[in-house]
Design brief:
- By secondary structure, the protein is mainly alpha-helical.
- It has one domain: ABC transporter involved in vitamin B12 uptake, BtuC (Orthogonal Bundle), CATH 1.10.3470.
- The relative contact order is 0.16.
- The longest helix is centred in the C-terminal third of the chain and has 28 residues.
- It contains 15 helices and four strands.
- Keywords: Cell membrane, Membrane, Transmembrane, Transmembrane helix.
- It is a multi-pass membrane protein.
- It holds the Pfam family BPD_transp_2.
- GO terms for molecular function: branched-chain amino acid transmembrane transporter activity.
């Protein structure tokens, strides 16, 4: 594709992304919420792509960092701590309302720290064994969140946290409707633009990482860790960096999720969420940014689209089959069909494909 054609495509895509919530808003806020959640999942998939796609480390507990970011914001921007602990209520009589400039770096730092904690004991593990350990880590975090309501109530247990503040900056509260020249932008549309900005920033970071020396070292570890170590690459530090960098994306995503929903509970961070995020990366194309974005958008939007298909199918069976079960069945069939037709993903990385092809020819 010529340079001018690329510029035209990018401009059209930019205009489309900017006007998308305005179009969807006319059909109802539910469709804008679907777009918002799709962008959140894109952010999560981009973070996991650093670990799985670049460094080749299979992480099935990625949702733990998502939960850490969400609960950190929930604690800093809800009445829970001030109502539970009298001394905190005395220090903050107006309640805890952490600003976005504090929350995002704190969430990224805390999640990154836990990413390093996860990476440190798993440096010698590979493949299935690494997947099992990371899966256990994700479940441990969820169980802790579910049970840290006694003897001291920190997370409110299975009841979750409610009344979480919406994000606000420069005097703009994203939880309220914004009137611009008589045209109203709903809260979900305002969050859309915030999530879009974060996704674009994350894509830029991921792209620069991919082209950097660190990114090339990660890919060398992914292809052959022994050869990478023989070439002088510090695989230990780079693996830890991959876990930490990927976790920061999850922490920021969790913060956005908590502020957007206004309520969080351990049920939102189940193993199935981790599996879905991994599926987004694999389905789209491991290590390829456009593919990862495509996979995240499809898998996050597909369940909601299939909701309208499952209803008529349920009616055809006389209501004997539950619509949610039918929806999950349709999602599974769609994923299996895609992987059979496109085993390397919908939009795989050309370089990664060449290396796989060369390995196959060598064998």
């Amino acid at each position: 594709m010529k340079q001018q054609q690329k510029i035209v495509v990018f401009l059209l895509a930019a205009v489309g992304l900017l006007i998308l919530p305005l179009i969807l808003q006319s059909f109802g806020n539910a469709w804008v919420r679907i777009a918002d959640m799709a962008l959140l999942y894109v952010l999560l998939a981009l973070g996991l792509n650093i670990v799985v796609g670049y460094a080749g480390l299979l992480d099935l507990g990625y949702v733990a960092f998502f939960a850490i970011g969400a609960y950190m914001y929930g604690l800093l921007a809800s009445p829970h701590l001030t109502e539970t602990f009298a001394w905190i209520g005395a220090m903050f009589p107006d309640g805890l309302h952490a600003p976005i400039w504090v929350v995002i770096p704190a969430a990224a730092g805390l999640a990154g720290f836990f990413g390093l904690l996860l990476g440190a004991p798993t440096l010698r593990l590979r493949g299935d064994y690494l997947a099992i350990v990371t899966l256990g880590f994700g479940e441990i975090i969820r169980v802790f969140l579910n049970n840290l309501d006694h003897p001291v109530n920190i997370t409110n247990g299975p009841k979750g946290m409610s009344q979480i503040d919406s994000l606000s900056f420069f005097g703009l509260n994203l939880g309220r409707t914004l009137d611009i020249g008589g045209y109203e932008l709903n809260s979900v549309s305002l969050y859309y633009y915030l999530f879009l900005a974060l996704v674009l920033f994350s894509v830029l970071i991921s792209h620069r990482l991919q082209l950097s020396r660190v990114g090339r070292a990660w890919m060398a570890i992914r292809e052959d860790e022994i050869a990478a170590k023989a070439m002088g690459i510090n695989t230990r530090n780079l693996k830890l960096l991959a876990f930490g960098m990927g976790a920061t994306f999850g922490g920021v995503s969790g913060t956005m999720f908590a502020s957007f929903q206004g309520f969080i509970s351990p049920e939102s961070f189940s193993l199935m969420e981790s599996v879905m995020i991994v599926a987004m990366v694999v389905l789209g194309g491991i290590g390829h940014l456009p593919g990862v974005i495509l996979g995240a958008v499809l898998l996050s939007a597909l369940p909601e689209v299939l909701r309208y298909v499952a209803g008529p199918l349920q009616a055809m069976t006389g209501g004997r089959l539950d619509s949610s079960i039918l929806r999950q069945l349709l999602i599974a069939l769609a994923m299996i069909s895609v992987m059979l037709v496109r085993p390397r993903g919908l939009w795989p990385s050309p370089e990664h494909g060449k290396s796989l092809q060369q390995k196959g020819e060598g064998a």
